[in-house]
Write a structure and sequence with these properties.
This protein is an alpha/beta fold. Helix content is about 55%, strand content about 5%. It is built from 17 helices and five strands. The longest helix has 28 residues. The radius of gyration is 20 Å and the shape is globular.
Length: about 350
């Protein structure tokens, strides 16, 4: 309600979406309150869980592929599709409605051909957008205020201490619920937004471990154009024509990578590993083994068959193809040169 009231009007052809969201929230309210009481009585049982492992990386850098592989290990807990869609209700109402929800799952993600199944791990960002006023998804829902919601939702620009504290409490609450649903496991979380927040996550979980995956910046840029167009088509409740997508991609990547570099520079090898998407593609099991060794994680040999089975199941997956870089190529070279050089990618001609 607060986000909508601040954002202004909604396109006539999307009003039913907003009305449906409010109606669903009101209909779930008794179950949501019951679940909050249920969680309050049980949260203390997960207080001593190990700190999460976070997968970082700009969107379209291979974070989803890495997440899908690692989540096959039964010692990791992750964000399910039901937890994403019903963050307040997935422990009770979500389980009761699981047969219906299973039928409602999309065949694949909006931005690519990656299949969505009941066991497919998801980012926590949509769940947090359903729980808090701070999420970059609010910029996608209400693009007439895109830059305001985007800067607040990714970099916390203009957010005071009380706003940060409220967001952090919701995050801890959601993670405790994930651990209640998957007891005895360690959280594995993938969210590209967190690439801009290592310092915050380290303060919240001093023993957290981080995996950063990067990809050729040209491929990232071209893929991100499709990313925004697809998500605006799917989610926007307002006209998105006023958003300069190329500039959003260029500036966000720069700021995000500078945050990442500054806020992970002092992490020892046992807490941070950086890898190339191309290496993961070429030798996935070898790279996964390297992650386990460097981060001192146990259980690789036990999980190897599950990793191999998943990799075999996606052997024929074909990535989206995009046009070659166009007039924006000179902007890439001018503004992203340090990242080409840092990670050893060839500059586009």
């Amino acid at each position: 309600w607060r986000i909508w009231r601040a954002a202004g009007g909604v396109r006539r052809d999307r009003r039913h979406v907003l009305a449906g969201a409010f109606a669903a929230a009101l209909g779930r309210l008794p179950f949501s309150l019951l679940e909050r009481a249920f969680v309050a009585a049980r949260r203390k049982t997960v207080r001593n869980a190990p700190a999460p492992v976070f997968i970082l990386g700009h969107w379209r850098s291979g974070t989803t592929h890495l997440y899908n592989i690692l989540s096959r290990a039964d010692h990791f807990a992750y964000v399910s599709p039901y937890a994403t869609a019903l963050p307040w209700d997935f422990l009770l109402l979500g389980r009761a409605l699981e047969p219906l929800l299973r039928r409602k799952l999309p065949a694949h993600r909006y931005i690519d051909r990656v299949a969505v199944e009941a066991t497919s791990p998801q980012e926590d960002e949509i769940a947090l957008a359903n729980m808090t006023p701070l999420s970059f998804y609010h910029a996608l829902y209400f693009p007439e205020r895109f830059h305001d919601y985007f800067a607040r939702g990714i970099f916390f620009d203009g957010v005071d201490d009380a706003g940060r504290a409220a967001w952090e409490e919701k995050l801890r609450y959601f993670y405790d619920k994930l651990l209640l649903a998957q007891p005895g496991r360690r959280l594995l979380i993938k969210n590209p937004v967190y690439t801009a927040r290592p310092a915050m996550l380290r303060r919240m979980w001093p023993d957290a471990k981080f995996i950063h995956i990067h990809r050729n910046p040209v491929k990232v840029f071209l893929s991100m154009r499709n990313f925004y167009r697809s998500l605006f088509d799917a989610f926007a409740l307002q006209d998105a024509d006023g958003v300069d997508i190329d500039e959003v991609i260029l500036s966000t990547y720069e700021r995000m990578m500078e945050r990442l570099r500054a806020e992970t520079a002092d992490l020892p090898p046992g807490r941070f590993i950086e890898l190339r998407f191309d290496d993961l593609q070429a030798d996935p099991l070898g790279v996964i083994a390297q992650i386990y060794r460097q981060l001192d994680l146990s259980g690789f040999e036990d999980a190897r068959p599950a990793f191999a089975a998943y990799l075999d199941s996606v052997r024929d997956y074909r990535k989206n193809r995009y046009a070659r870089a166009d007039e924006a190529t000179h902007k890439l070279v001018a503004r992203w040169r340090p990242y080409f050089e840092q990670w050893g990618y060839d500059l586009p001609v």
